[in-house]
Queue: 4 jobs
Job 1
Amino acid sequence: MNISQKQQIVPYKWYTYKYVCTNNILTENDIDLAINGFINTIFNELSNNQYLLIIFKIQTEDKLCRTISTMQRINKLDKNELLSVFNEYWILKSNNYAQFSITEIHFNYKLIDNSLKITKSKINRSENLRYKPELLKW
C-alpha cells in the first residue's frame, strides 16, 4: 500500500507498505522513517488487541526483492520493539547488500483475524538465529 492510498484492510490478505529510499543506501534512519510511516498509516488505524504479521524486505535498483527479517507477529503496543528488531536484522545482513543500490523498503503485512484469540506478540529476534554448533551434534 502506498502512503497516499487508504483502503479497508481485511484479515488474511497480504498488503505491501513501501518506503522510497532517497539516496540508494539504506541506513538505520531510513528504517526508522519507514517504520514510523507504517505506524502512522497502518498501526494507528488498528485497535490495541489487533495483531498482524509483518516481514521486512528491500528492493534493489534492479527490481529484485530480498527478505531481511523473519516474520513477526505484533500488535500496536509493541511497535517500538518492531523498530529495534528490524534494525538488528539489517545490521546482521547489511554487508550482504553493500554492493546493491537499495531503492525501497517493503513491509509485507496482513491482519490476523481477531476470532483466533491471539493474546501476545511473537518477536523473532536476530540473536535467536545465531550459529549454535551444539545443535548440530549427532
Job 2
Amino acid sequence: MEGQRTPEILDYRNKNGHGWSFFKHDGILRSINTTPEDVTEMTRKVQKLELRDDDVLVAAYPKCGTHWLWEIVTMLKAGNSEYNKKAKEIAMLGMPKFERADELPSPRVLNSHLNFRHLPEKLVEKKIRTIFIMRNPKDVSVSLFNHLNGIKLSFRFDGTYSEFLDLFLEGKVASGDYVDYVKDWLQVKQDNPDLPMLTLFYENLKKDPVKNIKTVADFIGVPVSDELCEQIAEACSFKKLKSADTEVKEHTTNPLSMWKEGRQGVYRKGEVGDWKNWITVAQNEIFDNVIERRFEGTGIVFTYE
C-alpha cells in the first residue's frame, strides 16, 4: 500500500447484506469508512507516544475484559476502590481521544486492542508492565455480536448471531481474527523476554477475583492488603461496574447516543458460559473444530463454563 495506491476492497457482506467491507493495512482489516492515510497517521502517533516509566498497559481483544481490568489496575495504582472519573477512552491507544493521554497524571493505566507491532515503539525498551487478558472465544463471539448489534454507528451489525458467527470464525469482523490476535500476543511474550508481561484469563478473574487482583498487584509492584483486594473485587463486580458506567454516561452531554434503544453501554452480562444460550449443537461442533485446529501447539486451554 505504498504511496497513494488505492487498496483492494474486501467485501465480506453476506447474501443478506450483513457484514462489512474492509481493506487490509499491514495485515489488519480496516473499515472503508477510513483511509490508508488516516490509519498510517494514527499508527504513527501511537507508535511515537511518549511512555512513562510507571505506565501500565492492558492489552486485549475486544470484549475480553479490557474495561474491567483497566478499572482494577487503576484502583490498585490509586490504592483505593474509587472509580476513576477520567474516561477510559482517553487512555485507549488507537481510539480518537488517545492523544489526550498526556493529560492523565502518573501513574497512567493505558489500554488497547491493537496488535503489538502497532503499539508505542519504546514499550520493550522502557520495560512497561503489560497485562494481556484473554477470554474463551465462544463468549467473545456472543459478547461482540451483542455489542455490534446494539450500536447505531456505521460499523454496527444488523444480522443474526448465526450470520455473525460465520464471519467471526473466518476472522471477517471489524476487530480482526481472534485466534491471530491471541497467537500474536503469545509470540510477543516469547520474542521479548525483557518485556514484563502478565497473561490472565477472564474466566479465572471471574472465578476468583481477589486472588487474581493480588496477582496483578504483585506484578505491577503495588503493596496491597487482602482487605483492599476484596474492596476492589466488590467495586469491580459486574453489577457495580455496569451501574457506575451508566451513571457516568448519564452525566455526559450526549448520553448513550451510540446505542440503540434498550441497549445501553459496553456492559451486558459478563457471564462465563452465556454462549450456551446462543450456539447450537451443530455450531458448537464447528466452533470446537476451528479452535482446536488453530490453537494446536499453543498450550492454551480455555474455560467455557
Job 3
Amino acid sequence: MASAQQQPPEIAVNDLTYSFPDNRTGVRGVSLRVPPRSRTLLIGANGAGKTTLLRLLAGKRLAPAGSISVSGVDPFKDGLEGVTYLGLEWVLNPIVRTDIGVGELLRSVGGDAFPARRDELVAVLDVDVAWRMHAVSDGERRRVQLAMGLVRPWSVLLLDEITVDLDVLSRAEFLAWLKRETDLRDCTVVYATHILDNLAGWPTHLVHMHLGTIREWGPAQDFLDRAAAAAAPGTGIGNSRLGELVLGWLRADLRDRGPRNQAKMGTEGLTYSQGGLGGYGLEDASKAK
C-alpha cells in the first residue's frame, strides 16, 4: 500500500463538529473537499471558525474519528509529514525576539539540506541573512517565519492570516511564489485572509465560513461568474470582482447574525442609534428613556 506521503495532497472534511473544552462550538457540520494542487481562500468574518478549522486540518486539535482526511490520513493520529501550518502566534515567541541571527534560524530548520529552496525564499521574501531578530520589524520577522516554515518541501500548506504584516510588494511576490509551487509541484494551499488586494486569478477555490459553518464552497471562477452576471454593468472589474463578492458575503453574514449586544443589553444597557462609526452609534439606554 502507498505511504501517506505518496497520496495526493487533497483535503476531505465530512460532517465535522468540534467543541472547545468550555463547550463552545468551534465548527459545526462542516463538509468540504479541497482538491490537489489547488489554492483555496478561506473567507469569513472574525470568529467565523477559520482558525479552528485550519488547526484541526493541521492536526493540532483532535477531531472526531473519520471527520478529517489530509492526503488520505487523519492528521492528528498519524501526524502526517508534509503538512505545514503557519499562524500569527509565532512572532510572539520570545525566542524569535532575542539576539539570534537569521542564518542560524534557517540552519536550525534544515536550510542547509535544501539550499536551493532556502536561497529562493530568501530572495522572494527579501530576507537579509545577516539580520538579528531582536533588531527587525514585525514585517521583517514575519518574512523570516515564512522562510523558515517553507524551506522544507511541503505537500499541504495551511496559512492563517500570515501575510498581515507584509508590505504590498512582499505579499505579492510571496503569493506569486505559492502559485508557482502549486503549478510545478504536487501540493495544495489553504489560505485564510481578509486582505484581498492583488488576489485576482490567484485562488482556484473559495470557502465561505459563517459562525462555525460553511455557507458555500467551490471553484472560485464559478462564484465570480455568477457575481459578474448579477452585477450592474461596469462594476466589479478584475481584482475588485473578488472583493465585491466577499463583501457581499460578509454583509449578508452580518445581517443574518444581527447586532452582537442588542439582545443581551435589552433596555437596561446600551442601545444602538443611527450615526457614529459604520452608521451605528451607542447611547446610554437610561438617558433614552
Job 4
Amino acid sequence: MADHNQASRSAKADELLDGLNAVSSHLASRSFLQHLTASRLPSAAVSDSSSLGPTKEEARSPARRPHLNIAAAFEDEIEHVDLIAPLIQEPCADGSTGSVEQRVIDQLEVAFVCAHRAYAEMAAERSFQTFSHGHQDLVLAVDFNYFGTRMVTASSDHRVKVWDKKDDSWTLVESWKAHDAEIVDVKWNGPFMGEVVGSIGEDGRCKIWQEDVTEVAMSGNRFKLVYVLPSLTNAPFMSLDFKNIMQETWLALITRDGYLTVYEPQDQNNLHEWTILAERWVSENNPPERQEEVGFKVVFHKEKLPCWTAITAGLDRKSLSLAVAAMKDVLIFRTDKAKRFFQVAKLEGARQIVRDLAWANGSMRGYDILATASKDGAIRIYELRTQTENRNAASGEASSSAPLSVSPRGHRQNAPSGIGAGLAGASKAPDTSIENEQYPGRIKQKVEMTDELTNHHGAVWRVAFSQMGDLLVTTGDDASIRTWKKAADGHWQEYAQIETAQDN
C-alpha cells in the first residue's frame, strides 16, 4: 500500500512537471512573447504572488489547496493552448490585443503561477520526512555529517543517537547515554578524521566519541569515549564546533558564562589527547547576570581556504576563522602564521541576544558573508571585506585586539622577572619588540551590515546557509521556515516560506 501511494505521488508530480514544462515552453515562444508587454509577462505575475507556497487561506482549508485538483485543471489548460495557438500568433489588424487573446493570456498566467505553487508545495511535502526519534524527552540538537548521509540527535534524556540514511529513510545505528544531564549541542567532526562526534551537556563536560565499526550496531558500544574536556570555569558549555583542514582538526568551545577555549590534538593522528591553543573571556566588560538569559555560540568557517582576497592581503592559507556570538555582538577571530588568534571585526546592531549565526561558504566570492539570528526578531546579514591598502601594517590592529590568552578566572598570569624572564623569552619566542613590528599573517578587515530582515513574527532561533552560500534558511517562533536569496540589487529577499505544523 505504501509503495502504491508513493508511486501515485510520484506520477502526480511528474504529471505536474510535464504540464509546467508545456506551459513554460509556450510562454517562451517567440510568437507569444513578441506581442506581450512587460506587465503581462509571467514573471510579473509570479512577483505579485506572496510566495510559491500555499496561502494562509489555502493552508487552513485543505480542500482549496491547488495541488489537490491542479492536475485535471492543468490538462484542460494544455488542451486549450493547442486550440487557441493560432489566435495568439495572429494579432488584430490594428496591432492591439483582442479580448480572446487577453483571456487566453490571463488563463495561461494563472495556470503558470498555480503550477509553480502546487509543484513547490508538493516538492516540499516530498522533501520533508517525519519519523519517531524515540527519545524520551526534547531533542535539543541535530547535526548532519559532511555528506548528509548520517545524522546525530541529542536530547534532554541524556542520550545521543546516530542515524544512517537508507532508501530515503533513517535507520537507527546506535543509541547511548552520553552525559549525566541534558545534552545541549552535538556535532560531527569530519570528513577526514573518521566517524567522530562531539557532545556537550549541562554536566559541564565536552566528550569526544569515535565509532568502532567492528562493534555490532545497537550494541551500546559502537561509539567509544576517547576524551573528556571539563569546563575551566565550572559553568556548563553552551556551544561547540569543529574545524578540519584535511587530516588536521580543531575544536572550539564556549561556556554559559562566556569563556572561549580552542583546542587542538597533541597529535593530529590521535584524538585521545588535546591541548589548549587559545582561551579568553568574550564578555569580560559586560558579564551576564546569573538569572539572565545568555547567548553564546561558536562557528568556524568550514572551507579549506579563507577568502582569496584575504590570502592575497597576507593571511595564512591555513588560517582558522572563528565567529563567536557574545550576547548582542559577534566577534570575528582569525589566526596568523604562528596560529595566534587576533580579532578582525565585531558584528554589531542586535538589540537583544544573538541566538545563532552562520558563515557562508564561497571563498572565491572575494568577501565573507555572515548571518545572525536574534531574539529581537531580526536576521542580520554582514559582509566582511579585506582592506588591502595597508597590507603589511598589522601592529595597530593587533594592539587594539585582545588576544585569546587570558587565564580561566580572568586574572592575567604574573610575568617572570630577572634571569627567569630572560630564559623564558629566549626559549619561547624572539624579542617581543621585533614580534610586535611584524605579526606575519595578520590582516585588517572591515565589516558592513547590508541587510536587516524582519519578516519573522517573533524571535529567530536558527540560521543556516546552503552549501554554495547562495541561499539562507531561517526559522523562529512564528513556526515558519523561510528561505532567502540575494537579489540583483545586492540585498537579500525572501524567496519561499513553509508553515510548519505545531502540536498543541
